TrEMBL record:
<dbReference type="InterPro" id="IPR005025">
    <property type="entry name" value="FMN_Rdtase-like_dom"/>
</dbReference>
<dbReference type="Pfam" id="PF03358">
    <property type="entry name" value="FMN_red"/>
</dbReference>
<dbReference type="InterPro" id="IPR008254">
    <property type="entry name" value="Flavodoxin/NO_synth"/>
</dbReference>
<dbReference type="GO" id="GO:0016020">
    <property type="term" value="C:membrane"/>
</dbReference>
<dbReference type="InterPro" id="IPR029039">
    <property type="entry name" value="Flavoprotein-like_sf"/>
</dbReference>
<dbReference type="GO" id="GO:0003955">
    <property type="term" value="F:NAD(P)H dehydrogenase (quinone) activity"/>
</dbReference>
<protein>
    <submittedName>
        <fullName>NADPH-dependent FMN reductase</fullName>
    </submittedName>
</protein>
<dbReference type="GO" id="GO:0010181">
    <property type="term" value="F:FMN binding"/>
</dbReference>
Length: 196
Protein backbone atom coordinates (compact mmCIF):
# COMPACT_ATOMS: atom_id res chain seq x y z
CA UNK A 1 0.00 0.00 0.00
CA UNK A 2 1.30 3.49 -0.84
CA UNK A 3 2.10 5.65 2.17
CA UNK A 4 0.34 9.03 2.17
CA UNK A 5 2.53 12.12 2.52
CA UNK A 6 1.21 14.71 4.98
CA UNK A 7 2.90 18.09 5.41
CA UNK A 8 2.20 20.58 8.15
CA UNK A 9 2.80 24.14 6.94
CA UNK A 10 2.75 26.29 10.06
CA UNK A 11 3.98 29.44 11.74
CA UNK A 12 4.40 30.06 15.45
CA UNK A 13 5.65 33.38 16.81
CA UNK A 14 6.28 32.27 20.39
CA UNK A 15 6.18 28.46 20.31
CA UNK A 16 2.58 27.72 21.31
CA UNK A 17 1.27 26.83 17.86
CA UNK A 18 4.46 24.81 17.29
CA UNK A 19 3.30 22.46 20.09
CA UNK A 20 0.09 21.85 18.14
CA UNK A 21 2.03 21.34 14.90
CA UNK A 22 4.05 18.64 16.62
CA UNK A 23 0.80 17.04 17.86
CA UNK A 24 -0.63 16.98 14.32
CA UNK A 25 2.64 15.41 13.18
CA UNK A 26 2.44 12.73 15.89
CA UNK A 27 -1.18 11.90 15.01
CA UNK A 28 -0.48 11.64 11.28
CA UNK A 29 2.63 9.50 11.89
CA UNK A 30 0.61 7.27 14.23
CA UNK A 31 -1.85 6.72 11.36
CA UNK A 32 0.99 5.61 9.07
CA UNK A 33 1.75 8.74 7.05
CA UNK A 34 5.13 10.12 5.98
CA UNK A 35 5.02 13.49 7.72
CA UNK A 36 6.91 16.75 7.20
CA UNK A 37 6.86 19.75 9.54
CA UNK A 38 7.49 22.96 7.61
CA UNK A 39 7.91 26.33 9.31
CA UNK A 40 6.56 28.70 6.66
CA UNK A 41 8.58 31.58 8.14
CA UNK A 42 11.79 29.96 6.92
CA UNK A 43 10.48 27.81 4.05
CA UNK A 44 13.09 26.70 1.49
CA UNK A 45 12.75 25.66 -2.16
CA UNK A 46 13.27 22.04 -1.04
CA UNK A 47 10.33 22.38 1.35
CA UNK A 48 8.14 23.88 -1.39
CA UNK A 49 8.98 20.75 -3.39
CA UNK A 50 7.89 18.60 -0.42
CA UNK A 51 4.57 20.46 -0.37
CA UNK A 52 4.20 19.89 -4.12
CA UNK A 53 4.51 16.12 -3.66
CA UNK A 54 2.32 15.93 -0.52
CA UNK A 55 -1.09 14.29 -0.54
CA UNK A 56 -2.30 16.58 2.25
CA UNK A 57 -1.20 19.95 3.64
CA UNK A 58 -2.32 20.97 7.13
CA UNK A 59 -2.19 24.75 7.65
CA UNK A 60 -1.42 26.07 11.13
CA UNK A 61 -0.98 29.55 12.58
CA UNK A 62 -1.61 31.47 15.78
CA UNK A 63 -4.53 33.85 15.59
CA UNK A 64 -3.11 37.37 15.46
CA UNK A 65 -5.54 40.29 15.19
CA UNK A 66 -8.35 37.92 14.30
CA UNK A 67 -6.60 36.16 11.45
CA UNK A 68 -3.45 34.16 10.67
CA UNK A 69 -0.05 35.71 11.43
CA UNK A 70 1.73 37.97 8.94
CA UNK A 71 4.30 35.21 8.31
CA UNK A 72 1.53 32.78 7.43
CA UNK A 73 -0.13 35.36 5.18
CA UNK A 74 3.19 35.83 3.36
CA UNK A 75 3.28 32.08 2.77
CA UNK A 76 -0.36 32.11 1.60
CA UNK A 77 0.44 34.86 -0.92
CA UNK A 78 3.44 32.87 -2.13
CA UNK A 79 1.16 29.89 -2.89
CA UNK A 80 -0.25 32.03 -5.72
CA UNK A 81 2.54 30.55 -7.85
CA UNK A 82 0.83 27.17 -7.34
CA UNK A 83 -2.63 28.71 -7.72
CA UNK A 84 -2.10 29.85 -11.32
CA UNK A 85 -1.59 26.28 -12.56
CA UNK A 86 -3.76 24.71 -9.85
CA UNK A 87 -0.69 22.66 -8.91
CA UNK A 88 -2.19 21.60 -5.55
CA UNK A 89 -5.63 20.74 -6.95
CA UNK A 90 -7.17 17.65 -5.31
CA UNK A 91 -4.70 17.55 -2.45
CA UNK A 92 -6.33 17.43 0.98
CA UNK A 93 -6.20 20.43 3.32
CA UNK A 94 -7.00 20.97 7.00
CA UNK A 95 -6.10 23.52 9.65
CA UNK A 96 -5.41 24.40 13.26
CA UNK A 97 -4.97 27.58 15.24
CA UNK A 98 -4.29 28.79 18.74
CA UNK A 99 -5.34 32.01 20.43
CA UNK A 100 -5.04 33.78 23.76
CA UNK A 101 -8.77 34.27 24.32
CA UNK A 102 -11.31 31.47 24.53
CA UNK A 103 -12.80 32.61 21.23
CA UNK A 104 -10.35 35.31 20.19
CA UNK A 105 -12.07 35.31 16.76
CA UNK A 106 -10.01 32.26 15.80
CA UNK A 107 -12.80 30.78 13.68
CA UNK A 108 -11.86 33.48 11.19
CA UNK A 109 -8.32 32.06 10.97
CA UNK A 110 -9.69 28.60 10.18
CA UNK A 111 -12.09 30.06 7.61
CA UNK A 112 -9.17 31.89 6.00
CA UNK A 113 -7.40 28.51 5.70
CA UNK A 114 -10.55 27.02 4.12
CA UNK A 115 -10.71 29.80 1.53
CA UNK A 116 -6.99 29.41 0.80
CA UNK A 117 -7.56 25.68 0.26
CA UNK A 118 -10.56 26.35 -1.99
CA UNK A 119 -8.62 28.81 -4.13
CA UNK A 120 -5.91 26.20 -4.54
CA UNK A 121 -8.48 23.55 -5.53
CA UNK A 122 -7.89 21.44 -2.42
CA UNK A 123 -10.42 19.31 -0.50
CA UNK A 124 -11.03 20.45 3.09
CA UNK A 125 -10.95 17.87 5.89
CA UNK A 126 -12.86 19.06 8.94
CA UNK A 127 -12.20 17.99 12.53
CA UNK A 128 -14.79 15.20 12.68
CA UNK A 129 -15.45 15.45 16.41
CA UNK A 130 -18.57 16.43 18.31
CA UNK A 131 -18.10 19.38 20.67
CA UNK A 132 -16.81 18.63 24.15
CA UNK A 133 -17.16 20.58 27.45
CA UNK A 134 -20.72 21.69 26.68
CA UNK A 135 -22.84 20.06 29.38
CA UNK A 136 -22.93 19.96 33.18
CA UNK A 137 -21.21 16.58 33.17
CA UNK A 138 -18.58 17.47 30.56
CA UNK A 139 -14.97 18.40 31.27
CA UNK A 140 -12.51 20.94 29.97
CA UNK A 141 -10.30 17.93 29.30
CA UNK A 142 -12.69 16.71 26.61
CA UNK A 143 -11.50 16.40 23.02
CA UNK A 144 -12.66 19.44 21.01
CA UNK A 145 -13.29 21.28 24.29
CA UNK A 146 -13.83 24.56 22.40
CA UNK A 147 -16.53 23.08 20.17
CA UNK A 148 -15.16 23.90 16.72
CA UNK A 149 -16.00 21.74 13.69
CA UNK A 150 -13.84 23.41 11.06
CA UNK A 151 -10.44 22.37 12.40
CA UNK A 152 -8.41 21.99 15.59
CA UNK A 153 -8.84 25.07 17.77
CA UNK A 154 -6.72 25.71 20.85
CA UNK A 155 -6.52 28.38 23.52
CA UNK A 156 -3.46 29.13 25.63
CA UNK A 157 -3.39 31.70 28.43
CA UNK A 158 -1.37 34.72 27.30
CA UNK A 159 0.89 34.52 30.37
CA UNK A 160 1.75 30.84 29.82
CA UNK A 161 4.67 29.40 27.87
CA UNK A 162 4.49 26.66 25.23
CA UNK A 163 4.26 24.03 27.98
CA UNK A 164 0.95 25.62 29.04
CA UNK A 165 -0.82 24.56 25.83
CA UNK A 166 -3.89 22.65 27.06
CA UNK A 167 -3.49 18.86 26.95
CA UNK A 168 -7.00 18.49 25.52
CA UNK A 169 -6.07 20.83 22.67
CA UNK A 170 -2.91 18.81 22.03
CA UNK A 171 -4.99 15.62 21.91
CA UNK A 172 -7.48 17.31 19.57
CA UNK A 173 -4.61 18.30 17.23
CA UNK A 174 -3.34 14.70 17.30
CA UNK A 175 -6.82 13.57 16.32
CA UNK A 176 -6.78 15.96 13.35
CA UNK A 177 -3.42 14.57 12.22
CA UNK A 178 -4.70 11.00 12.38
CA UNK A 179 -7.89 11.93 10.52
CA UNK A 180 -6.03 13.72 7.73
CA UNK A 181 -3.61 10.79 7.30
CA UNK A 182 -6.43 8.24 7.18
CA UNK A 183 -8.44 10.34 4.72
CA UNK A 184 -5.32 10.79 2.56
CA UNK A 185 -4.88 6.99 2.52
CA UNK A 186 -8.46 6.56 1.30
CA UNK A 187 -7.91 9.12 -1.50
CA UNK A 188 -4.64 7.44 -2.49
CA UNK A 189 -6.31 4.02 -2.72
CA UNK A 190 -9.12 5.54 -4.80
CA UNK A 191 -6.66 7.19 -7.20
CA UNK A 192 -4.72 3.95 -7.54
CA UNK A 193 -7.93 2.03 -8.30
CA UNK A 194 -9.06 4.59 -10.88
CA UNK A 195 -5.67 4.52 -12.59
CA UNK A 196 -5.64 0.70 -12.81
C1 LIG B 1 0.26 40.46 17.41
C2 LIG B 1 -0.64 39.54 18.21
C3 LIG B 1 -1.99 39.53 17.95
C4 LIG B 1 -2.83 38.67 18.66
N1 LIG B 1 -4.16 38.65 18.35
C5 LIG B 1 -4.98 37.80 19.02
C6 LIG B 1 -6.35 37.71 18.68
O1 LIG B 1 -6.85 38.35 17.74
N2 LIG B 1 -7.13 36.90 19.42
C7 LIG B 1 -6.63 36.19 20.48
O2 LIG B 1 -7.39 35.50 21.17
N3 LIG B 1 -5.31 36.20 20.78
C8 LIG B 1 -4.48 36.97 20.07
N4 LIG B 1 -3.14 36.98 20.35
C9 LIG B 1 -2.61 36.00 21.32
C10 LIG B 1 -1.99 34.78 20.59
O3 LIG B 1 -2.92 34.18 19.72
C11 LIG B 1 -1.53 33.75 21.61
O4 LIG B 1 -0.61 34.33 22.49
C12 LIG B 1 -0.93 32.52 20.97
O5 LIG B 1 -0.72 31.53 21.98
C13 LIG B 1 0.39 32.82 20.28
O6 LIG B 1 0.82 31.64 19.61
P1 LIG B 1 2.33 31.45 19.11
O7 LIG B 1 3.20 31.31 20.36
O8 LIG B 1 2.33 30.22 18.32
O9 LIG B 1 2.69 32.68 18.34
C14 LIG B 1 -2.30 37.81 19.66
C15 LIG B 1 -0.91 37.84 19.92
C16 LIG B 1 -0.09 38.69 19.20
C17 LIG B 1 1.40 38.67 19.48
Amino acid sequence: MTTPVVSIAFHSGFGHTAVLAEAVRAGAADAGAEVHLIDVGTITEEQWAVLDRSDAVVFGSPTYMGTASAAFHAFAEATSKRWAGQVWRDKLAAGFTNSGSKSGDKLHTLQFFQILAAQLGMHWVNLGLLPGWNSSTASENDLNRLGVFTGAAAQTDVDGGPDAVHKADVATAEHLGRRVARTAAVFLRGRTALAA
